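Lab notebook page, bench 4
Experiment: in silico fold of construct C2
Operator: M.H.
Input chain length: 208 residues
Purpose: comparison with the prior construct
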Amino acid sequence: MTSTMDSHPGAGLVAAPGGRETVAPQRSATEDERRAHDVQEHAVVCFSVAGQLQAISVAQVAEVVQPPPITGLFRLPDFVLGAVSLRGEILAVLDLAKLSGVGETALLDQTRLIVVQAESVRFGLLVDEILGSLSLSPTAISEAQAPGSPAWIIGVANHDERPVAIVDVTRIAQSPTLDEVRSAGRAPVLTKREQHDRPSVEGKESFP
């Protein structure tokens, strides 16, 4: 398991203008080395939620930003904090701690919004802190789940003898809780949208 995590917040990520962050470039490697690495290991973004380490596949992460002002939405579950506007795109903001039933996320200097893409649904997850990026080998991830774990926790890896819960954003988007919100018509920002509607902004830092 390769790690760019360090002892200080945000290790492995590079700050960019506008508060966006992206994975720090690694040392140069040959094309064959990169291909072998991609086949053998799975890149994830690691973060903390209520003191727990969790990670999301880089493939499901569009970008990481400092939370913009959040506009509240009425008559929604408390884990739906509201909506934000990012370069003209309206995104729902979910508090991952509240959604998971493990507390709530305070808006502090290190708090980050992870903009995620699950199939045709795009939204933001508020987390306590970004810790860096990890490369996990398939054998390092156990599919065993602790009793009572949310359905979107699809496995657990170990990093420095600490468990890292692997989050599947698609399962969050497909969860019955969000289906109820959508079916009630109270959160249009959570509705599905076409992939080609995804904005392409020159110079936008994003995960590959």
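Observations: The mean pLDDT is 74. The helical segments are 31-40, 96-100, 169-173, 176-183.
Next step: discuss at group meeting.
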